[in-house]
Amino acid sequence: MILRSVENHITMRFTHTFCRKYAFTSLIFFSFLFLVISGFMQVENNLSPNQFFTGEDSLKITLPKEGRLVDGKPVGKHWVNLLNSQADWNMDTSAYTLSRGSLHGDYYGGKFHNFAWTKKVYKNFELQALVKLSGKDANSGVCIRINPTNADNAPGYQVDMGEGYWGCLWEEKRAGMVQKFPDDLAAKLVKQNYWNHYYIIARGHHIEAWLNGVKTIDIVHPEGYEEGSIGFQLCHGDKHTILDVQSLYIKEIN
User: Fold this and answer.
1) Is the confidence at residue 31, as pLDDT, over 80?
2) What mean pLDDT value characterizes the chain?
3) pLDDT digits (tens, 9 = 90+) for 108-119
4) Residue 233 and residue 114 share a domain
5) Are residues 115 and 146 in the same domain?
6) What are 130's strand-pairing partners?
7) 12 has a pLDDT exceeding 70
8) Residues 95 and 149 in one domain
């Protein structure tokens, strides 16, 4: 009986000591694990959207089948040609001409920008643009959801074009650079003085764009406009921008 009491006492002491020891060890382990996971989450949350476009993997072709052009025309149904009539546009005819389904812009810059934009406004859509940029320090952009007050003042998004801007999302008169695509990757992707293809999806505050089949923009930007016109910019400054648009098709998303 005495022996059994001693055994029980020793067992209880051992169990108590064991539990206290390993409970403390477990607490230390799970606390460390929590700090590590929190650290990773903090790093992820602090990443700039630009940091997701790094390395050669960013030049992989990921264009959805809906974004393809065949002989300058999109595949599938319900696409509308925005270059059918100049009557559908607001434009300075000294800088822009629209004829035979193509838009041409030629502008020497100076103090003011020169925007052209559709009279109709759009909210959610897919957009196809086949563009060529040339000239001296040329700069332009495929404008989406812009809300112009005149040809110089057109706040809203530009899916950008020009050295240092190809593949980027710019917000004119508002946030400025929203998402930057690395210049070194753009240099490998853009066809200089030749035709380049943009496929753009704007749905809610989510903006996506592919340049020549490579995704260069993917961002949710809650501060941006949710509707506006489609258009183009001829940039101000000491520049000569020559812009040609061979295809411009839109498909509205319900």
Assistant:
1) no
2) 86
3) 999 999 999 999
4) yes
5) yes
6) 197, 247
7) no
8) yes
- Token representation of residue 92: 């300075």
Are the C-beta atoms of residues 112 and 95 closer than 8 Å to each other? no
| Number of domains, the chain | 2
Tokens 């940091």, located at residue? 51
In DSSP notation, 62-121 reads: ---GGG-EETTEESSS--EETTS-GGGEE--TTTEEEETTEEEEEE--BSS-EEEEESS-
Name the percent of the chain lying above pLDDT 70: 78
Residues shown for the chain: 254
Residue whose pair of structure tokens reads 């149904």 in the numeric block: 77
The alpha helices in 86-240, defined as continuous H runs, are: 183-189
Statement: residue 24 has pLDDT above 60: no
- Cβ contacts of 213 within 8 Å, gap of 6 or more: 61, 62, 63, 197
Structure tokens of 28? Answer: 């230390």
Residue whose pair of structure tokens reads 């700090």 in the numeric block? 35
3-state helix, strand, coil in the chain (%, to 5): 25, 40, 35
